[in-house]
Specification:
Radius of gyration: 26 Å
Order of helices and strands: EHEHEHEHHEHHHHEHHEEHHHHEHEEHH
Largest sheet: 6 strands, parallel
Distance between the termini: 44 Å
Helix content: 25-40%
Strand order of the largest sheet: 3-2-1-4-5-6
Length: 404
């Protein structure tokens, strides 16, 4: 019998849209939690984003909502709010991204919910938390990239502030929320009681960016300015080969010695700018200029043949499309082609970590809007006749599926 996954037996009620909250829910679902995604009749907004084969099953939704069940509940109705509170009372975790004022109007404040369910882990995710000068401000990924200093860091290479072309604030914050919930569950195992967890994107990304860039401000008073120059320099970029680009980062003395040997110029290692780690750190621009000169003399294939047997860190510069057929990803069965009951064949990346004591398989494909409504309501003790009426006659559990 295969071992259980770490969160097997944990029920998570997710009331969140877009990426931050849903991605946290997906991480928990991948670890075995029973994640119930409560959606309004029109569904999560991401259902309408990206290419799709059927209405409300856009690519954006498919890549951030596997490992979940979907229930439609109209929280504007009294019956819908009753269903909501029944679901909360039977959940281990409530994960929501609603504004606090809206949550309070629905009776979803932690004080009220924990009185009835003292073991509840209550996780509120938001761009800005409720406390502080910016408390309650609306925010999405671009806003947080700007506020956290991340967009400004691109000035050195772009000439002006730019957004990183991935929703990194949502993704990093989603990881933090999943991690925080897992830790709260661990503490509940020790104490028997739940707690409120708040994860704000602004604080999360401010801490994330400061790891290397706090630099002289790690001391009080500051010993130097902010910014780890080697990683924010315009010189830090992929190197052009004869026919493409590659990343190369010799680090230890042994790496550098071997690289210059492979390049056919071992004498360069005698240059005092390259001979020691401290010297290379001080003269990093000269170092990178020398790598650029050496790399430009050969093709990708030539460097691949030379470096693959060696212990020198390198990679060719892949496109996103290259990852679909990357030989390493193929060798570890990274991509899983699964047949969805309504969407046909889907390409799904496997859970990117491995645990010797757990089988981290994906057993739930992204759900259709309200796909599990009847199933979940029945688990909560509602009568079949009432469930069918709600679903069929435009009640609180009736999905609205547009034609496009």
């Amino acid at each position: 019998m295969k071992p259980n996954r770490p969160l097997e037996g944990v029920r998570v009620l997710e009331i969140a849209s877009m990426i931050f909250g849903p991605l946290a829910g997906q991480y928990l679902g991948d670890m075995g939690a029973d994640v119930i995604k409560l959606e309004p009749p029109e569904g999560d907004l991401t259902r309408a984003i990206g290419p799709r084969r059927t209405p409300r099953m856009g690519a954006f939704f498919l890549t951030s909502n596997r490992s979940k069940r979907s229930i439609v509940v109209d929280l504007k109705t009294a019956e819908g709010r009753d269903i909501l509170h029944k679901l909360v009372s039977e959940s281990d975790v409530l994960l929501h991204s609603m504004r606090t004022s809206a949550a309070n109007r629905l009776g979803l404040d932690y004080a009220s919910l924990s009185a009835n369910n003292p073991r509840l882990i209550y996780c509120h995710v938001a761009g800005y938390g409720d406390e502080g000068l910016y408390g309650g401000r609306p925010a999405y990924d671009d806003i947080i990239q700007a506020a956290s200093g991340l967009a400004r860091l691109q000035t050195v290479v772009a000439g002006q502030p730019r957004f990183i072309p991935t929703i990194i604030a949502d993704k990093i914050s989603g990881l933090h929320a999943a991690w925080a919930i897992a830790m709260a569950l661990m503490q509940r195992h020790q104490t028997g009681v739940g707690q409120q967890v708040d994860v704000a994107m602004f604080e999360t990304m401010a801490a994330f960016n400061m790891m290397e860039h706090q630099w002289g401000y790690a001391f009080e008073p500051p010993m130097a300015g902010m910014g780890y120059e080697p990683v924010s320099s315009a010189s830090r970029r992929p190197y052009k080969t004869l026919d493409g680009y590659m990343a190369l980062l010799p680090y230890s003395d042994a790496h550098w010695k071997r690289f210059f040997e492979l390049a056919g110029e071992p004498h360069i290692m005698q240059d005092e700018r390259f001979s020691t780690f401290a010297a290379r750190q001080k003269n990093f621009r000269h170092v990178w200029d020398e790598i650029e000169r050496q790399v430009a003399r050969k093709s990708n294939a030539e460097w691949l043949a030379l470096l693959t047997p060696e212990d020198v860190p390198f990679s060719v510069v892949n496109s996103l499309e290259d990852l679909v057929n990357d030989p390493h990803l193929e060798s570890v069965n990274f991509w899983d082609i699964r047949e969805h009951p309504t969407e046909g064949a889907l390409r799904i990346p496997r859970v990117p970590i491995q645990m010797s004591g757990a089988d981290l398989h994906i057993d739930r494909l992204p759900p259709q809007l309200g796909q599990h409504t009847a199933e979940i309501l029945k688990e909560c003790g509602f009568e079949d006749s009432q469930i069918q009426t709600w679903i069929a006659e435009g009640g609180p559990c009736h999905p609205l599926i547009p034609s496009t």
